[in-house]
Write a structure and sequence with these properties.
Blueprint: E1 2-6, E2 16-19, E3 22-26, H1 33-48, H2 52-69, H3 72-78, H4 80-88, H5 94-97
Parallel strand pairs: 1-3
Antiparallel strand pairs: 2-3
Length: 113
Amino acid sequence: MLIIKNSILPTKGFAAINLFTLLFVRKEATVNTVLINHESIHSAQMKEMLFIPFYLWYVIEWLVWLVKFRNSHLAYRRISFEREAYCHQYNPHYLKKRKLWAWWGFLTMKRKK
């Protein structure tokens, strides 16, 4: 994964954004194994969905949750792709045993309190 540190992408409030497996990281953000693992999970999701459908699904799902929660941060955290990545970001071995379409199981999973 190519890492590009800059002050433009992602927007403030986010440390990194993975675009077609290129990782754009804010200059002030720390790149560590957890961040790399989180974004590597997104790369696996993108590849299995052939990239463009991943982004379409991501935006549609975010919009659905935004309508429900009326809060962009809550909507973002509810996206199935993000839920899978956050759930497994601390497990460096996750991608070795990850099943195809694993994010699907996070689509209907009840939100933990």
